[in-house]
Amino acid sequence: MEMVDIINENNQVLYQIAKEEAHREGDLHRCIIAELLDSQGNWILVKQSNERQDAGQYVSPVGGHIQAGETEEAALKRETQEEIGITAFTSKRIGEAIFNREVIGRKENHLFIVYVIYSDQIPKLNHECVGYKKFTPKQLKEDVSRYPQKFGSPLRFIYKTFYE
Prior knowledge:
Oligomer: single chain
Structural class: alpha+beta
Strand content: 35-45%
């Protein structure tokens, strides 16, 4: 059973519960999110498989829960390796923002802790994704504006909050 820290809006830990219970109750908890940029400045986004939330849409390549008691840096390293198989990267913390939604029967109330990771390693995708695509910064800006349905709502939120 995966445990998460329930936090207040100041990111202070209140208690720990199972992730499933946090999603059932809508309790605020942390997620690590990372955008992947290559040395040319291209964004690499992954396309979600049909069994996942945001099915068929492009999303941040790294996104997952920070486990109870886990540091941001440890979660970033673990999730990057699990989700895209990348172990050689540098990173920069971008910021944090609260994101709420109801999706596939869950009340997601997440504090997104957002990083950029820089690497030229080729992503090795897990079962959550069916492919990836490189976007130039200009192309991403145009596509998010003109074709928002191509992108999952968390990615649109992160892009609008931190990059517009």
